Amino acid sequence: MKCGLASAACVLALLSCGSAHAWGSLKTTGSNTHGCLDRSAYAVLAQRPGFNAEVFPKLDALLDHEGVSWTGLWGLQGNGPDADGATFFSQHYFNPYLKPGQQDRAPEAAKTWFVKLAQRQDTAKAAAWSAHFIADMTVPFHVNGMFGAGLRRAFEGHTMPLPIVIKGTVTGNYGPEDDWAREADRYLAASKGAPYLDWFDPWYWDGPKDGFASYVDSSHLMWEFKIRSCPTTARYDELWPGNPKPGWEHVSNAMGDVVAEFIRRVTKRTRDNQSDYVSSPDHALAAGVNVILTLWRASFSGLRVSLTEDPDPAPTRPGDLAGIVVRGRLQNLSGETPEGVEMKLAIRQGSSCKRKEPELVKIGTVAPGGPRYYGYWHVSVPDPKNCQLRIGVIGKLKKTPDLQLDWYDQPITVKLQPAAVVPVPPKPQASKPSLDPCACSFYIGKHPAECSDWMHRRASGTYEEHERACQALEQASAKPSAPADCLGADFGSEKCTAH
After folding, report:
1. Is the N-terminal amide bond of 202 cis, ω within 30° of 0?
2. 406: phi > 0 → left, psi -120 to 50 → alpha, else beta; which?
3. Which domains does the chain have, with CATH numbers?
4. What is the pLDDT of residues 12-24, one digit of tens each?
5. Ramachandran region, residue 85 (left: φ > 0; alpha: ψ -120 to 50; beta: rest)
6. DSSP string, 348-370
7. What is the pTM of this model?
8. What's the pLDDT tens digit per position in 155-196?
9. What are the phi and psi torsion angles at 467 (to 5°)?
């Protein structure tokens, strides 16, 4: 419900109803039906497979963003969407029989806050406000009406019949009407200077008295005072369109589009069952709890991923830190078997951290239960303080409203020790020739007696491969200061090449 005008008459009327639970959000009278629906849906959600208490907000935090209080001069104030000026009336309505663009803003309002919830941004407010907007679509009076701007153009103080597409099939408290000029006049007078009053609901202004009392005693508000309690059971709504194709990017927006379509379907059902919902408010309440449960369950996944990390004993470079070995840890808490499951390890922070293996591992199907371990990544970690990992999982779930994506961020927690220094082998040195001088023709010529035994071998070509070494030996022997042993095995050593 969008309470609208912050009038003393409105508050006095609410107070007179004692403990009645109007389908509203006024905390000071105990008539916060939106809060009651939230409690019922939360109690069921918390017992469903896959509930993620780590990412979904606590109930008390959520309820802090639902409901308003009467503050006298300052009107209706609070953290809920029914606070004066907090939202537009059109965000609380949807007329499925108007042309696109004229219907209202409820699907987009719910989608906006659902996307925030799925992205884990301001989750308590996002859960409360998205639930509020979708629960309004199960109220039979919230699927009627038209934009106030269109009413101003159509009404000029003359007789004003309303087609059924605007007024719906509701039967009010004051009999059928063919002329809605009085209600239009009341709305236009009240909405002057209040731009948030941008939607005309004829059943909000049909009270028997003029002024603000026309709102307090309206058929709409009187129906809401019939609410006495909230359901204690709930189920996923059968109008849920199904989860979108899982993916790694724009997941929350894709699911937000599904949520918007879900709301359109819910409003069509409410409009088609107006007479039943008006005569049996419990049916509307049951629908309200179901749609909230379905919406909230779609904001997280029953696939739960985390990672393990262990020191990688393999060294990298001398003095570097040894890296880590990462494995993905997956639990399937959804209660069904997903298809097309994939796991991905990304470096979220730290450009110097390097993953050696491909980031993506394709798994296929995963039966309920776990944990199970997948993937095997080596990650080099030069600076653990500036390295953060993100591991994620996706998979297609066909039965349960589910985000189909879960991710987990973790800084490096393993205590790393400097890797052992890799011994660097010495560069191979050129072998020094161990050359018998008799292998050289110039030496044989000088010492024929000494080398007589070698002459035959040289003639056969045995020592031709030493010709260059013989030439160097000949040059060295020509130097008068060359030590005698430079002609033998020490040839090529530093003491010989210096001469």
Report:
1. no
2. beta
3. 8-297 (no CATH), 303-411 (2.60.40.10), 437-497 (no CATH)
4. 334 333 333 345 5
5. left
6. EE-TT-EE-S-SEEEEE---SEE
7. 0.77
8. 665 667 888 888 888 877 776 677 888 888 888 888 888 888
9. -60, -40
